[in-house]
Design a protein that fits this description.
InterPro entries: Diguanylate_Cyclase (IPR050469), GGDEF_dom (IPR000160), Nucleotide_cyclase (IPR029787), Rev_trsase/Diguanyl_cyclase (IPR043128). Residues 240-373 form the GGDEF domain. This is diguanylate cyclase. It comes from Luteimonas fraxinea. The chain has 373 residues and is an alpha+beta fold. 69% of the residues lie in helices and 9% in strands. The strands form two sheets. The chain has a five-stranded mixed sheet, sandwiched between helices. Strands 4-5 form a two-stranded antiparallel sheet. Strand 4 and strand 5 (326-328) form a beta hairpin. Helix 1 packs antiparallel against helix 2 (55-74) and helix 3 (83-114) runs antiparallel to helix 4. The radius of gyration is 35 Å and the shape is elongated. The two termini are 57 Å apart. Bound molecules: guanosine-5'-triphosphate (GTP). Guanosine-5'-triphosphate binds at residues 216, 248-253, 256, 261, 264-265, 268, 291-292, 362, 366.
Length: 373
């Protein structure tokens, strides 16, 4: 299927959303994990009674691991939904995670021969636990996650293989392979969930837009117009000018009957283009209220609004609309009313007056603008 600019925009937006979501989740998941390495190292040294022979090593290892845990938390989070910043953040965070796992892995390997039991056992068990935790939790990116698992596991593997027994080393390799498989599966599940959530978000946004936009003309629909009118009435209560126009295409049935419904649709679209081009100033809003009826809100008093409506009507009547291969003169009747706090208790009152003015325009022969008497 060819990609349109709109679908390209949507997929670019979707990729951006996925990246931002990944940043949020990676941060959440990585925030706590860093501290466990320092605590585990402290525990391994604690069982030796922090004897003087190991005091410097303990300080160095525990201090480095805790410092890396602090750095994880302090990496500045990208404030705006900026892709470049988001990628930089992820690169930095994964860099710190990898550094942590390499420091831990090296410590664990050194520990196997340097510290008395049960410190090596503690480090060994923690290495397995960290590897599995990485496989389950930090699975957002496969390559750095795999490297982190290897960082935790491989140094110990070398020691087990060389200094304990080849069988124990082989067991460690099987364990490591299993972790990598778990990580791959966790990664797939993570991506599937992320993409599903993004699809749902997009559908929700699409429904929200569709519920407020007219599908044919892409103008705001009656629902959106009514809400905007309510809000405009509140502002008008503070003294701002507000006028309402209701426009109805004259004898629209004739267009359908003469040229068919497809041409009728095209005529409505063309009419909406003209309307939007004529009322596109600040605070102005055009909408399709239904059928061949349109509404305009404009922050103007009665005289200005009436003059603008007349200009639109006259221009329309003088320049034929081109739609679906047809050129035809289309006219409109307009009802105009302006907000007056003494007469209009609510939006409905103002709307009824504009509607009554439109009725008079129709009864008066069409192709005319009537305003509140
Ligand atoms: N093609 C098309 N026709 C529509 C649409 N909505 C309403 N109509 C038609 O608009 C016509 C409205 O007819 P009427 O209500 O009699 O109004 P009119 O012919 O414009 O006459 P006046 O309003 O009295 O000047 C009907 O034939 C509807 O079928 C639409 O979305 N597309």
């Amino acid at each position: 299927m060819p990609t349109t600019p709109a679908s390209h925009d949507r997929s670019a937006q979707s990729a951006r959303n996925l990246l931002i979501q990944e940043v949020v989740e990676t941060r959440q998941r990585a925030r706590l994990g860093g501290w466990f390495y320092g605590v585990a190292a402290a525990l391994a040294f604690a069982v030796t009674g922090f004897s003087t022979g190991y005091r410097m090593s303990a300080l160095l290892v525990i201090g480095t691991l805790l410092a890396l845990a602090i750095v994880r938390v302090l990496i500045p989070v990208p404030a705006a939904p900026d892709e470049r910043e988001a990628r930089r953040y992820l690169r930095t965070l994964w860099g710190v995670v990898l550094a942590t796992t390499i420091v831990w892995g090296s410590f664990s390997a050194w520990n196997q021969s340097a510290l008395p039991e049960p410190a090596p056992l503690i480090a060994l068990l923690f290495s397995g636990a960290f590897g599995m935790a990485l496989a389950h939790t930090l699975c957002m990116r496969q390559l750095p996650s795999a490297l982190a698992i290897l960082g935790v596991m491989v140094p110990t593997l070398v020691v087990l293989w060389r200094e304990v027994a080849i069988g124990v080393g082989a067991m460690w390799i099987v364990y490591m392979a299993y972790m990598l498989l778990v990580m791959r599966r966790s990664h797939r599940e993570y991506r599937a969930r992320l993409e599903l959530e993004e699809d749902l978000r997009q559908q929700r946004d699409l429904f929200a837009t569709q519920s407020r936009v007219d599908g044919l003309t892409l103008l705001p629909n009656r629902r959106e117009f009514s809400e905007s009118l309510e809000q405009a009435i509140v502002l008008a209560g503070d003294g701002r000018a507000l006028s309402l126009l209701i426009l109805d295409i004259d004898h629209f049935k004739r267009i359908n009957d003469s040229f068919g419904h497809v041409a009728g649709d095209a005529c409505l679209v063309e009419f909406s283009h003209r309307l939007r081009a004529s009322f596109d100033g600040p605070g102005e809003l055009c909408a399709r209220l239904g059928g061949e009826e349109f509404g305009v809100l404009l922050p103007a008093d009665c005289i200005v609004a009436h003059a603008r409506a007349e200009r639109f009507r006259e221009t329309l009547a003088q320049s034929p609309l081109a739609f679906d291969g047809v050129q035809d003169v289309v006219t409109t009747s307009v009802g105009c009313s302006s907000f007056d706090a003494s007469r209009h208790a609510d939006a409905g009152a103002l709307y009824r007056e504009a509607d009554a003015a439109l009725y008079r325009a129709k009864m008066g022969g069409r192709n005319r603008t009537e305003r509140t008497l």
